[in-house]
Design brief:
By secondary structure, this protein is mainly alpha-helical. It has one domain. The protein is built from 13 helices and no strands. The two termini are 30 Å apart.
Length: 290
Amino acid sequence: MTGSRKADKIFKGMKRLLLFLGVFIVSFSGIMIRLSSANPSSIAFYRCLIASLCYALALRGSFKRFDLKKELLLLVAGAFLSMHFFFWISSFEHTTVAGAVIPLMLQPFLTSIISFLLYRERVSPTQILATLIVLSGITLMMFWDAKASIRLSFGDLLSLIGTVFLCGFILTGKYLIPKIGTLNFNLRSYVIASLILFLASYERSMQVFPLREWLIFSGLGVGCSFLGYTLINNSLKFFGAGTIAMALVGEPVLSILWSWVLLGEKATFPQFFGLLTSIVGMIIFFRAKL
């Protein structure tokens, strides 16, 4: 009995470790984007293209066809993903790493509210209050950043727009993944996103990039989009969605830490305020949900 409990404890610890590892890997996304000198559309294109190749290898090259409704929804998912990466990566040209990653914390709230409207999933008054807290915190952050610098506020806004597109991608996946599987959904959506981004900026994406940029593209595609999110998605087998969403709070927090330690880039006071209100709202939201 003691041995069984020990094994169970070790297994639970390993599951938590893999979840943390996934969040840890993804948290370097903002740092790699900040270090890149390539244009945002090229970064987004090669991140999606390299991730597509990884998912294709994971599926051993199998490319399934689905009915018309699913194919159209996969096109929508790919479009949402391409717009998310374009706007979010573009935000790094105008704001700090903190300003780019903090609006991402709004995603679970917006997703839950839209899920209520689309799927009639229950949302309590406390969760609505928590959403308003986070939204007001991010709005105030953008307003105060605008008073200091319009450029900072514009970057915050680009990140927020990217977050809205991310919600659309997640909600489309919520409908499709149970029907076609996570790997099939990711492969098709990343391939479609790659095609959209390539068609939108093929001249800039076809230029010659130095080895340093290819290492960054590979880190984003293989590390963050494929390995990091595969570990996080796999954790859904062992933890509830609420636990995963709470764990994902670690991504912007760690990103801000890395930007300070590795790049010497500090968050502004408004961004620090936006981060704190987002964490408070997140705690309230998921305490009401769990």
